[in-house]
Known about the structure:
This protein is an alpha/beta fold. Helices cover 44% and strands 17% of the residues. The chain is built from six helices and six strands; from the N terminus they run βαβαβαβαβαβα. It has helices at residues 16-27, 41-51, 59-64, 80-89, 104-117, 131-143, and strands spanning 7-12, 31-37, 55-56, 70-73, 93-96, 121-123. The chain has a six-stranded parallel beta sheet, sandwiched between helices. Helix 4 (80-89) runs parallel beside helix 5 (104-117). The protein is globular and about 50 Å long.
Amino acid sequence: MTTGERVRLGVAGLGRAFTLMLPAFQQDGRVALVAAADPRPEARRRFAEEFSAPAFASVEELCANADVDAIYVATPHQFHAAHAILAAAAGKHVLIEKPMALTIADCQAMVAAAARANIQLIVGHSHSFDAPYRARQSWCGAAGSAACA
């Protein structure tokens, strides 16, 4: 991937988290949804129809897809570590939903897998730029840090 190219994103998990993030992905010209994985046949069928892209029954199959640059891990929390480690082992960058994992050991294993594979591991998304946070940040700056402690 070079500057100016679209990130070819694969989605692991087509549930609620994906549904909430879908508008952001669709509105960002830097992202192309190119594949997905979900154990539910109906979810795979809908994704394949809507995006004219393959939808796999397993995250392993998604990670093996050469058309995918990065994987958005939106599976249930207990699978985050395993799925992020699979993606890293396949050389895919990872955007993972919160929480990153359920244990510190799993988080450390994910970071180590990303380092070994020389891929980016990002825990998303941040609310830092949402209006309520920006307003509080602005008010706290004016009021002084003691007022916001």
